[in-house]
Structures are given as C-alpha cells and as structure tokens.
Amino acid sequence: MKKKLLAILISCILIPLSASAHSEEFHVGDQVPPHGEKKVTIYFNEQCHGCSEYLHDLVAPYLTEQGYEIRWQDYINDPSIREVMFFRAEKLAIPLELQSHIMVYFEPSQTIVGGHLPLSLMEQILNRDESLYPAPLIVSQDEMVDFDDAKAVSNTNYYVYSPGYEVQSYSLEQGLTSYQDWFEVNQDNQMEVVTKGLTLPLVLGAGFVDGLNPCAFGVLFFFIAVLAALKRTKKNILLTGGVYIIGIFLAYLLIGFGLIKAINVIPSHHFAAKVSVALLVLVGSINLLNLLLPSFKLGYKIPRISKSKIKEYLIQGTYPAAFIGGFLVGLCTFPCSGGIYVGIIGLLSISTSYWLGVGFLLLYNLMFVLPLVIILLLGLNPLVLNKLKQLKSKHSKVMHYLSVVLIFVLALIIYLWL
C-alpha cells in the first residue's frame, strides 16, 4: 500500500511536468533556419478577427513578396506555443508593455515586431542598415489603427527597444531613422541589464507566512491528539502526520499548476498581471472585512461539511486516510489563505520563465508546509502541543492580519513591476 501510494504521488507531479517539457522542446528546437534562408515566425490569436485580417490581408502578402517563408503559430489553440512565445520574449528581456498579442520574429536576423505596424514602417525595419542599430531590435505598437486615417496615425505612438537601452517612443508618422539618430548619440550609454532578485526571498517568505494559517493548524492539532489517543508510538505519529502533510502539499501544488494554466490562457502577461492585482485586492478586501466585521464571513474557514468529512478520515489513523484527509485540507484551506498564493503565481507569471516558475512553485509549497512540519515535530510532546494550541488561539487574529497585509503588499509589488 505504501509503495502504491508513493507511486501515485510521484506520477501526479511528474506527468504534467513531462508533458510541458515535451511540448516546449518540440517547438524550441526549430527556431533558427538554415543559413541563407529568410523565415519569419508569427505568434498570433486566430480568434482575434482584426488581427487575422491585418496579418493575412496586409502583412502576409508583403512578407511573401519579400521572399519570407511564414511559420504561423496560433498560441490560443495550442497552449504549448504560448509557453514558447513567452520563453522567447523573456530570453530577449522584452518589456511587458512591448509584448503584444501579435509577435513577429524575423530569422535569422534579430528583429522582432509586435502588434500592428504600417507596412511603410515595417519596410524601413527590414531594409535598415543593421550596423547602425543595436541588436536585437524590438519594435512594437499594440493598438489596432486605421492606417488610412491620418489623424489616428499621428496620434498613435510606436515603441523601439533593445536590451540595455531605454524604450523610445515615436509617432507612427516618424520613421525608424528617428531611433537611429537617438542611438547614434546614446549607444555608449548602455545600461547593465539587471535581473530583479526580489523574487526568491519573496516566494520563500510568502510561502512561510501563507503556511501560518489557523485553518490547517487546527486540523493538525486534532489529528495529533487523535493519534495520541489511539496509543500510537511517536514514530507512528510522525509518519502518519507526515503523510497528512504530503497530502496538503500535493493538493496545494496541483492548485498552483491549475492557476498557472489559467493565467496562461490569457494571451498577454501584462494583462494577466493586472488580473492578478485585481484578484489580490478583492481577496485582501474580503479577508479584511472578515476581520473587521464579525458578521461578515465569506470563504474564511473550512466549510463545516468538509471539516466533518476530513475528521472521519483522520479518526481512522491509517496512512491512506491521513493522505486523503490532508489532500482535502489542502483543497479546503485555499479559500482561507489562497490570496497570497494567487499573488505569488501572478508575480511569477511576469518575472520568470515556465520552468523557473515551476521551481519557485515547489519552493513556495515546501515553505507552505514547513510550519506544519515544525508543529508536528514539536507536538510529539503533549505539553508542548497544548502550549501550541494556546498560542494558536491567542494569536490567530494576528496571523490573519499578517496574511492580509502580505496580500496587499504583493498587489503593490506586482503593480509596480508592470
């Protein structure tokens, strides 16, 4: 039974990861064309009518005329393509505001065009003297503009960027030579591209604080007391409690993967980050109201029906029952403390690649269950267990306030990151 349970746990974690790895390797391997060939990869959303019209009626005929072989990549119908698109953008350090719903990569040259540009400007980009410009060169304009409307064109700006230099903005009426003139003066002022190092300590700290939630604590206290009443040895209490914690870990981890998939459905990371901020503010506000108004209770505790079912499993005191009980606790505590989790995943979606994000997600969940591991170890002593119960009862509200503060801090960090 133990070996079978372990096999199920491992397969639950490895199967989704291996599937994602396969899809990414398949697409990344064929990005660079053979020497001398002119290829262009277009990442687009087929469901966007205006985008498809712009690409198929305007861009595609022009690129075909110029001798480019077009590789169409619809990232809405194939999520693995979206992962590759985000990976390429991150590898080139393309700012979020320049990551458009249309991304066009010209290969083998280091030219990237985002969004909707008039053909006259695209022609200047492709025919430029590359020795006079930095590489890679990213040119983006995200709005759908009627290029026949002179006023609309004059009132719309496009953006030019190369890693290490500030983003420059010009009216669509201005040609690319405006950026060439700017670069000629500023090419020696290249800035060091610094990776934001705030993510790791924030993930570790947030995971630990998220784990300090009374929802999971109360059930663990109950479980330890049940095992002690059943005259279990300390070793058995430790092992059975460990299986219970593994159940919580796996449930919360799978919720995290689900949130990542949900965020990846949103084409723009920039927009996904805004959605995360809005959700954080909403969840933080609800939690704050729960604290300030005793009569207002919305999603703040494990439901009574779920709690009774969880206790039914835990009273059995077996490994499978402990795992199922822990898994249910992991699912049911998400409404209680999931605001921080949503914020961290929103932050990871705009600041890391897919696989680095998976690594951070694992670290977050390890930190999330760390307080439970500490309580399990300390709770082997009945006197210490009673003291922990008293502390939990006394400081429960403080922990909730700390959670609310962290939710709003995460919302602010993501907002400032945009």
Automatic annotation (TrEMBL):
> Looking at the keywords, is Membrane present?
yes
Membrane-crossing residues? 211-230, 242-263, 275-300, 321-348, 354-378, 398-417
Xref: InterPro entries: Cytochrome_c-biogenesis_DsbD
- What is the annotated signal peptide range for this record? 1-21
Keywords tagged on the record:
Membrane, Signal, Transmembrane, Transmembrane helix
What is this protein's record name? Uncharacterized protein
The scientific name of the source species is: Candidatus Falkowbacteria bacterium CG10_big_fil_rev_8_21_14_0_10_39_11
Organismal lineage = Bacteria, Candidatus Falkowiibacteriota
